[in-house]
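Hi R.,

Here are the chain sequences for the assembly we discussed:
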Amino acid sequence: MSALLDIRDLRLGFKGLRGITEVLHGIDLAIAAGERVALVGESGSGKSVTARIILGLLQEARAARVSGAVEFDGRDISTMPARQRAKLRGTEMSMIFQDPTSSLNPTFTIGRQFAEVMRRRQPEMSREACDRRASEMLAEVSIPDPARVLSAYPFQLSGGMNQRVMIAMALVNHPKLLLADEPGTALDVSVQALTLRLMHDLVERHGTAVLFISHNLGVVREFADRVYVIYRGRIVEEGPTRALFDNPGHAYTRALMSAVPRITGAGLPEVPEVSDDFLAPMVRHTGGAA
Amino acid sequence: MSSVLRILLRRLGISVIVLIGVSMLIFAIARIIPGDPARIALGPNATAEQVVMIRTEMHLDEPIVAQYGHFVADVLRGDLGTSLYTNRPVTTDIAEFLPATLELVIFAGILMVGFGLPLGILAARHRGRWPDHVVRVLTLLTVSAPSFVWAVILMLLFAFYLPLFPVAGRLDSAYDITRVTGFLTVDTLIAGNFGAFLDALHHLVLPAVALALSGIGQAARLTRANMVETYDKPYIEMAEAYGFFPSRIARRYAFKPSLIPSLTIIGLDFAAMLGNAFLVEAVFAWPGLSRYGVAVILRKDLNAIMGTVLIIALTFLVVNIIVDLLIAFLNTRIRHSTRGAT
Ligand SMILES: Nc1ncnc2c1ncn2[C@@H]1O[C@H](COP(=O)(O)OP(=O)(O)OP(=O)(O)O)[C@@H](O)[C@H]1O
Ligand SMILES: [Mg+2]
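And here is the predicted structure of the full complex:
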């Protein structure tokens, strides 16, 4: 299997006043084309920074020290020139954020923002063509009145509506990889569950690979084919969703699971105390789907 | 558009009130100043009879309220009286000297927008890196000294030690330009004399830069501060995640919401330059209204002083109204730089 994304021994440090603080300590993570992979861990474990490295954004930050290989589609993102990296963003890979309403630009209409995104792929595309394509895409995320939404500003729409807009926008250029960093956790639980299901169907239909970042094991279980559990900048367990949930091998994973709230999609898991067992070696589930 | 109209009407109303206040104030000050206006007008050798006559003529024997009434009536008729200094109607004097000041201030205003905003954008875009540090240090320098100090420094540096620019005046005496608007950069072009146009510009540079420097610094610093704040917003991160060019993100995403506060401060600075121009004009021997104002103040030329103050107040108000309308117009176009506004 040749992976769409192949991360090997990824390390990240931030230069601060007292030397360099290591945040990622050698992460290995792979995603096959069309595969849905979840990255779960508590707050501050290094999930968002991993996504920012895949997008090639942290490599450009002055304080960040990134090492290791991040191969996307056979090319190493970390070593390619900044311009090349920027070319991949918004075309080959795209991202969905936690709070849809504040992630959309309040000074532009939705239609305008769609057009900007689409012109990343096809710079010559006319506004009419963009609007037509955006309407199709909005229909795919079950937005009943695309024309009204396209002429609206983000703050004129509900959070759930904006979330759908964001999913549509992220997929409009047919990216190979979608990064979803705790999508919609700022939203109402039922709205969140609904839009996640929409997203699930859509990426399945388009064959888009997803790196799904979450606190929430309940959501992950429904969404992902495979799961990585991250603890303090290290992957502690990896395996197919079924295998991992049926038979969690690592102490930290077990602690996370016992902390999963009963109601699907709600709240943050609170891992009560820190145990030395959490630093045990990584557990890898083999076999099953991959 | 109706909101713009509403703002215009409200500002006009406020302006009328301000003008009435200013006129009362200068009228009162003129009456408080020691010395009999009639005697000042007639000179030391006047006879008592002449003084009585002129007092009646100037309504000085009437109650103060009536005197103010006459004053306002005259002003409304466009009669600001005669200057004792030039022996001409004050309106004629102002028409002669005001354009020079306006030309200087407008040119400085162009510099303020033309340099202040781009420098602020540059610094914000490279925040924390050397272009930011350079801009911040330089702008701190420019805002920390008043414009007349800059006038002296610039004159010493670029007119004396390095004679790159003329020391004084608006135009070389070799040129003879017919006066049409009083703006030499315009009149020279009307006359089709391009050499004179360049010479007029050449004369404008140093005083305009001196006048604009602190405004440039303020505009740049404010623009930077607002943009840096905007750069922390999630939608900027989203724009980065979608691979938009940094220059595009800077202009379209980060700058746009900062435009209104920046324009507001530029508008205020622009109006303040009318006052600062007084000292800059003095340094560069710029034959503008400020120099006229100083001259008439030193001679206790009451009509001329009152006229000058009124005109400056009027210009100030007009500038403010223009800036307000511009901002209102942009506001309706930008709609929402901040959520929930309007
Ligand atoms: N720009 C930065 N400079 C310094 N440290 C940073 C920076 N960005 C992130 N970090 C640190 O890196 C660590 C991982 O952060 P990250 O945002 O990836 O956590 P996370 O797993 O996404 O957490 P959350 O679930 O709260 O979003 C944190 O300890 C954070 O303090
Ligand atoms: Mg995060």
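Chain A touches chain B through 26 residues (CB under 8 Å). Chain A has one domain: 5-284.

Let me know if anything looks off.

Best,
T.
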